[in-house]
Target: CoA-binding protein
Amino acid sequence: MPKDNYEPYVFPDLTRLFAPRTVAVIGASEKEHSIGNHAMRNIVQHSAFAGTVYPVNPKQAEVMGLRCYPDVASLPEAVDVIVVVVPAPAVRAAVEQAGEKGCGFAVILTSGFSEADDWGRAEEAALVEISQRTGIRIYGPNCPGLVNLNLPLGLTFSPAFKDDITPGPIGLATQGGGLGRNMIQHNVRGIGFGLWSSSGNECDLQVADFVHHMAQDPEIKVIGCLIEGFKDGARFAAACQEAARKGKPVVGLKVGRSAYGARAAQSHTASITGSAEVNSTVFRQMGVVEVDDLDELVDVAMLFTRKMPEGTEKIAVFASSGGAASLCADNVGIAGLELAEFTPETAKRLADALPPYAGMSNPIDTTSISISHPDAYREALAACADDANVGLVLAPLPMDYGTYSVVNAGSLKAVQDAASVPIVPIWMSERQGGGYAKLAEAGLPPFRSLRNMRKAVRRWIDYGLWRAARDTGWQPGIIATGSQGDPDPTRTLSEVEGKRALAAAGVPATAPEIATTAEDAVRIAQAMGTVAMKIVSAQITHKSDIGGVKLGVTGDGAAAAFAEIMANARAAVPSATLDGVLIEPMAPAGGLEAFVGILRDPVFGQVMTFGLGGIYVEMFADVTRRMLPVTRPMAEEMIGELKSAKLLTGYRGQPKRDVAALADLIVKVSDYAMATPGLVEMDINPVWTGTEGQGVMALDAVIVVEE
Amino acid sequence: MPKDNYEPYVFPDLTRLFAPRTVAVIGASEKEHSIGNHAMRNIVQHSAFAGTVYPVNPKQAEVMGLRCYPDVASLPEAVDVIVVVVPAPAVRAAVEQAGEKGCGFAVILTSGFSEADDWGRAEEAALVEISQRTGIRIYGPNCPGLVNLNLPLGLTFSPAFKDDITPGPIGLATQGGGLGRNMIQHNVRGIGFGLWSSSGNECDLQVADFVHHMAQDPEIKVIGCLIEGFKDGARFAAACQEAARKGKPVVGLKVGRSAYGARAAQSHTASITGSAEVNSTVFRQMGVVEVDDLDELVDVAMLFTRKMPEGTEKIAVFASSGGAASLCADNVGIAGLELAEFTPETAKRLADALPPYAGMSNPIDTTSISISHPDAYREALAACADDANVGLVLAPLPMDYGTYSVVNAGSLKAVQDAASVPIVPIWMSERQGGGYAKLAEAGLPPFRSLRNMRKAVRRWIDYGLWRAARDTGWQPGIIATGSQGDPDPTRTLSEVEGKRALAAAGVPATAPEIATTAEDAVRIAQAMGTVAMKIVSAQITHKSDIGGVKLGVTGDGAAAAFAEIMANARAAVPSATLDGVLIEPMAPAGGLEAFVGILRDPVFGQVMTFGLGGIYVEMFADVTRRMLPVTRPMAEEMIGELKSAKLLTGYRGQPKRDVAALADLIVKVSDYAMATPGLVEMDINPVWTGTEGQGVMALDAVIVVEE
Model:
């Protein structure tokens, strides 16, 4: 396969950004409520930072008891990180001095750059130039900074930093600050985020770099991403591959699933939001778990920290309300998850522990013995958790029952301490009572709704399956970046050119020829057998409408067909230049029509869309997509993913189609696209698909390339 | 249309159940923590009950300072309600005495009836007999009771009653108690449930009766239902019609959307859970807003209490975080809702109030002026709320920002006080800070996630549209109950019988005749034109496989065809009784195939399924359903609802199909089914559907009736 447009990704080492030994605060201030004061306080007072802090401010001799330096150049050493909070016009000089001095990173909190105006865009470009020239890496600008809550250290001006210091195994990469803070505040559930980057304009370092870093950090088990727009989609995909290699799930929420969201996110972050369908395709392909809202992101991440899934886990539902048991089991079923069958030993333990009127098959309804006999409740829960068939225990708690809830939460904790499978509480009440607090404290962060539980467990299982499949050898491949931004002027290949290009690339396609005389036409038709004939003219697009197409022509008949087509064309569009009549063999009757398209996504480069034609696409949107390159196993997956796949494999006694040839064609098209960097888009439609052994054939192809 | 199997519903007057003047507690007790003590306390101490309370207990002279009676018979008057908490074996006598005395209602909290064992089932049947004989209506047994929080009065043993007394405009009907309590506890958001029934085994009164009552109660604006299983589906539908007539939305969650849930709910409530598809059909048809989880039920109900929708409302998004603005706008778009365009006046007010770097088109991002300039934040919000194009303002609040959040919540309240459109906060943080409490207190119950907001607003708008459409004259019609439970032994009509029955009912169907000789065959074929011929034998099912079918036969050719079919049949199944050869006209080529089915749902009676045949059903499940009767406008709706509807209305230059004739056929099939109470199921497949003017024709029909 062609290698020209591949680009290996080299990710920066961010160890000293997240765990610096020395930090300078440019714009440090004693002034209460100033940004420079907040930033200093967060490092000096609210962090447990053992390194050296240098305040920089030409107007002050000392800040918070530390000697203050007039500028970066006069610092006694090249610090790991400068945190920049001076006004925008003063930022460039500070970063330039830091770069020249050999500092590692500039965390620029200041706003007023590319998100604001032309001056800001130019200034940001100058920062990038400094970074490239001196090697200093830039975080921001226009951001609240970053936090390492596992130290803890906050390189941020946020006054909320001190209230949300909970260490933990989740890494979080966002762009804006508000929604990240929202997720961090799920720490009331007892779940902590060890690292949080919130990288604003991302003129240099971007979400992909933080994902890659978190993949290396041994304290981080799972990575959450909230993405408003991508700077470099392929870089993100490569970072996700790295996380997968390290066995760390990435959970993603992408803003811009609707036109409103895409527009708003673009104006907020000045990033490319791209197509939601392509984004979802890439997420799925790279094993990124896509979620629907912020709480779902936290829920899924939280579940991964409890245990990494095998994908084969069966569920036990353990409740003390019949309604909660039913509704929880219902949600298990809705998600397509499986309830475990208890072993005879478990059944006996349950029968011994619970009263006869309790629900003892799965789901379990202990009834009110959770209140009257907490020991029996605990023993029954332990029986569930010990069952060899159970991979996850769900414990829905529908209401806040005051101290009774606290006792039950304690039972969950006690049983979990001795159990190897995760016991997952669902605190369903909006009232966060003492039981909720007890669960949080016990390291059993509760889900908050059955719907969220269902979605999270489904995604957890699916990740296990994805990982298992990946372990068997599937590789997502290297990413073709293609060109980004506005394409150059384009040209559409003629039908003859296009089909010759496909044929040269090994894609089965009809081989048309152009007849300019009736004699030509007869000669060509005689060689081809039964043919289709159509007028060739740049000025005539709707060929059928003007009588410019004849189908099923054979041999001598081509002469009359040629004359008729030319006459019809001349009559319909007298001014048109007629280049002749295209003649090509007709495909055998009874083929099924498929299509293969390639587009160049502005974020993720070349992406293939495949499906069956007509109704299936237009009414049922029955298509499947992949980033290129598409390998043979991927092509087979794509074919199998169609809802209408049965039409290919033999529906209602219809013959099986030539799926092998179709898969070959998909791979060849992928190869062709990868080898054609100037390809803007192509659409092979229809692909005639014969029965087994008959092969496939591109009957029409529109190929658009950069000029 | 036939009327025989219609049944008008007469609903009981439950005024004195929810607002009794006199209550007796059967099993009242002084004993701390006993059920009888809780029940007494809830009425005497925790309610504001101005009526008379009679404790009944033969072992005590006085309970809580009130004179105690030895039994119901000795009470000085016929009370409105007896609350029964004595053990199951003592329940029947108390209810019998109450019935004979002329008491109105028995609220039976005691368990151990049909949910437990055969004795309990028999005892429950005896209670029903007492109710029918004496007129006393029974609530329960096996339930936590009912509460009227608008008084407040709690006829319940729940120790949680006293902690959840928030009056409000939502009525709630559940069966079990735990999940109902879950919803009641959303009162921490500042939203109250005025009435809550939780009716357990429902041996007499059932959810439908409570919905009907809540539809009459002037203090109730919206009704929530959580249904584990139906006792009488048609009664429920009729109650929902009544709520719609009163302009009150019903919001429903049905357990049993999966096999696990259906099985669990059935064992929990001993009700019929029915088919999830049919349930959703009925909900949609009756305007019941179906939700996916308990919090969604509360969210949707809450939004209805804010304002009844027109269905045309456009949305403003007002945030002080760029990310929240984007993600909220994204959710608006995902839900297919519309962002409002601001008027020039609003644009000017926003420009005057906000800094130039704020996001001033919709969605609004005030930036941090929400903290630095709360007055400007308030003025900008007022500008949004005053805009004539805005029907709803969404205010996402992504994080708990301590006192700043409290100030912003105060601004929301101040602007809402002067505004006519609802201002809807989304408190997205899991941390329920002071701002959350302030919103709750201000009567602005917050949503808790953007996803839930999106779903609730979509359902709110959809209800407005449903109501508007309903106002234009559409009527859901009367419900055909059909038989319930196990059907009697059944019989399948022969093809000739079936088609004659359809034709007699005005359903266009081929009119087959049976030829027993070659001469017959020729005579029949000559009269019909081009015909299809097939063997008729009870012993031969796969007719084509044995050469028992001939298509496209004309005139004299029928003689040879007859001989060949008979010979083939004889050769293939020598022992078969051959009744002759069925001959019927062939439908013209090129028709589209549709199908119409009727099934008798155990909960909702006769339900029609309609769709296009083959692939569309099997791969894409592209069908639509209605409870019978289907009127002509409903039939047109059904046709239009198919994803593949375009195939009927002219896809890609294909001719338009005879939609009018298809709609007529649907109505005639509905009429036929309604007139055939013994109909167990029917499947007309295919319905040949010609081009406009060509009509339609039932080509095959399987009709199963009770013997």
User: Anything to note?
Assistant: The first helix of chain B runs from residue 15 to 18. The longest strand of chain B covers residues 679-689.
